[in-house]
């Protein structure tokens, strides 16, 4: 589906003077020529978490040329640490090291590290360079593309942040060999999302290759990542700051963010909540008569084949959902806006669903 | 020097799609037609401090149409509160009120309030609208123009922030009638700066009108504000993100920031530290043979005529200065960069001064 150049593929995110490459392949962590062209100056800080540091930090640092001033910072692991307090630790470390505005931050880890380091870079001295080295499937196909950075607030996910583009993204698929199965599935939720919102051929392909994806077959996973990044890059190039089409990338996320926030960040993985959220969005789209019962069933079957939940949490009422969903960033003034499926492979943003109908659907939705 | 339209003048900051007007005049706080066109939606939060709230908060809120959802937040007053913790209080209030990304923040107060509210707006849901209503001379001529927002860190001033432009700036010069004399002088430091870096005719004018400025004569102060904003707006339009000429606006600020940080924020007012810093920069420029002894003396006399210090703090060594100055955002890698005077009315950025010469000058500089 995409051209294969040995073990390495390169996409370009087209954003004018903020354009950047995404390199996907095996063994990329050891390739200095993919990192050093994107460093702004001599000062480099690699930020990672406690789970990733023992696996990949030394390898990445060994790849950086000796003449650079390299510092490292290891943060705790988990969505519950995606907070302004942890970002402040990055700022403290940068200032204690005397790093200036030509320094470069390198985010080595999953989406939490990428979002926090990106935001730390956006705000440090009003903006410094950063490079994404995502190590989870979810961050490889989603959060490392498009420049959304930020942290959670106790009252809402990703409520504080900035649009800030990386100078480059390095996706080393070797890192997936150490990824827990549950996190692999969570990443597949976003992969499935791209098919549902924009690409029925990709949906067909995913149905055929799901077992190979779950087994992390290198060629297949590289194809899935490249196709996902391409779809996201195309959408981001069209609409960098989410005035329009970019909102479609939030399929399943309005329900999903409500689940995550209610259950406590880290108890449901982001991708698991998105899986359930996409199932709820597909079910609502069918209830509105937009997609057929067969297409709704096909969507849920694909989500389940990736070992993702399609049910809502047992302890979450429709009011719990609606209270959280009212805080969603897509809303304009008092109206709830949802991403729904007009047909498989074709999503839209709608504020046409009355709150009463939405409440009714959530009340009837399967719990576990 | 600028066209007068009754009691009101309007400048435009030319930044393409981010262009915005600066309205300067008397009675502007009561003019709804200058505020409402710039509101993004129905939700408005006015943020001010404890000193300004009793004076102007009710008046501003009464100007906003009844159909809007208006909230207010009052923060403590002072540079020592320009912190990420206070910005977090703004984010907390926005989320508790359920404000979405079409809300508008209004910054009513001096530079501390303007910088914090601007930064809160830049990061809330990755960016919402804000309006500046500066109430000190310093914020009217400086911090409300140009989109620099941010907070201090214990290790450096304005180290965390964003470039984020307001939708409009309302300068009501009536607010200067309640401004303490010391803060009026602090604002005049930035006014003098514009003359020193860019406009000898303005320097001549300031020497003639200094007593009228200190007496807050309305026409004279309005002229000074308009000319200052115009010079700053021209420079910002040339160089929004400080890649070049905008750095000249930092005349006196590298020394000044070092003084503020060493003395503890709030003990020396920002403008006082800039006054002393400009005197040091002029003295260094003379020592380098760039400006004459007469021009150095003229610069210091103008600064002193505004009741500003030209001495350095008695308890601050050259090492204290240099340690803080090394953290300055203008530095590139290890080189100290300073804004100096090539001639009166013509500043430049230089990294040509050896650290030893700089240390020697600071050692010999008058203390009090």
UniProtKB/TrEMBL annotation, chains A, B:
Reaction catalysis annotation: 7-phospho-2-dehydro-3-deoxy-D-arabino-heptonate = 3-dehydroquinate + phosphate
Domain of life according to the entry: Bacteria
Compartment list: Cytoplasm
Catalytic EC class: lyase
Gene name, Swiss-Prot/TrEMBL: aroB
Cofactor(s) required for function per UniProt: Co(2+); Zn(2+); NAD(+)
Binding site residues for Zn(2+): 190, 253, 270
Keywords: Amino-acid biosynthesis, Aromatic amino acid biosynthesis, Cobalt, Cytoplasm, Lyase, Metal-binding, NAD, Nucleotide-binding, Zinc
Family as reported in the entry's similarity comment: Belongs to the sugar phosphate cyclases superfamily. Dehydroquinate synthase family.
BP terms from Gene Ontology: amino acid biosynthetic process; aromatic amino acid family biosynthetic process; chorismate biosynthetic process
Protein name: 3-dehydroquinate synthase
EC number, as in UniProt: 4.2.3.4
PANTHER family per record: 3-DEHYDROQUINATE SYNTHASE, 3-DEHYDROQUINATE SYNTHASE, CHLOROPLASTIC
This protein's pathway: Metabolic intermediate biosynthesis; chorismate biosynthesis; chorismate from D-erythrose 4-phosphate and phosphoenolpyruvate: step 2/7
Pfam families xrefs: DHQ_synthase, DHQS_C
Function: Catalyzes the conversion of 3-deoxy-D-arabino-heptulosonate 7-phosphate (DAHP) to dehydroquinate (DHQ).
Gene Ontology cellular-component annotations: cytoplasm
Main location (coarse class): cytoplasm
Organism of derivation: Vreelandella arcis
Binding site for NAD(+): 77-82, 111-115, 135-136, 148, 157, 175-178
Domain 3-dehydroquinate synthase C-terminal: 187-331
3-dehydroquinate synthase N-terminal domain mapped to chain residues: 73-185
NCBIfam families: aroB (TIGR01357)
């Amino acid at each position: 589906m995409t051209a294969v150049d040995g073990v390495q593929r390169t996409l370009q995110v087209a954003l004018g003077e903020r354009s950047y490459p995404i390199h996907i392949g095996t063994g990329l962590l050891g390739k200095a020529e993919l990192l050093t062209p994107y460093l702004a100056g001599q000062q480099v800080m690699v930020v990672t978490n406690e789970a990733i540091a023992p696996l990949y930090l030394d390898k990445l640092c060994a790849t950086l040329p000796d003449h650079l001033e390299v510092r490292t910072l290891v943060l705790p692991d988990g969505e519950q640490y995606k907070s302004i307090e942890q970002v402040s630790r990055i700022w403290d470390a940068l200032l204690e090291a005397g790093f200036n505005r030509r320094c470069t931050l390198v985010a080595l880890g999953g989406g939490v590290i990428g979002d926090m380091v990106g935001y730390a870079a956006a705000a440090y001295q009003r903006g410094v360079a950063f490079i994404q080295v995502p190590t989870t499937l979810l961050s490889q196909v989603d959060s490392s593309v498009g420049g959304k950075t930020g942290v959670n607030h106790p009252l809402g996910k990703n409520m504080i942040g900035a649009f800030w583009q990386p100078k480059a993204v390095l996706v080393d698929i070797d890192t997936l060999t150490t990824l827990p199965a549950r996190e692999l599935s969570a990443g597949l939720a976003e992969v499935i999302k791209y098919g549902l919102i924009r690409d029925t051929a990709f949906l067909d392909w995913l149905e055929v290759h799901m077992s190979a994806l779950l087994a992390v077959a290198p060629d297949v996973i590289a194809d899935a990542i490249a196709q996902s990044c391409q779809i996201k890059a195309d959408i981001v190039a069209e609409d960098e700051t989410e005035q329009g089409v970019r909102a479609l990338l939030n399929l399943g996320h309005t329900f999903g963010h409500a689940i995550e926030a209610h259950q406590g960040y880290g108890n449901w993985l982001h991708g698991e909540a998105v899986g359930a959220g996409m199932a709820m969005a597909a079910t609502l789209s069918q209830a509105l008569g937009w997609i057929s019962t067969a297409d709704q069933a096909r969507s849920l079957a694909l989500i389940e084949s990736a070992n993702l939940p399609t049910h809502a949490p047992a302890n979450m009422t429709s009011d719990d959902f609606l209270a959280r969903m009212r805080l969603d960033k897509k809303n304009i003034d008092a109206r709830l806006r949802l991403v729904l499926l007009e047909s498989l492979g074709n999503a839209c943003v709608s504020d046409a669903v009355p709150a009463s109908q939405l409440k009714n659907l959530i009340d009837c939705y399967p719990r576990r």
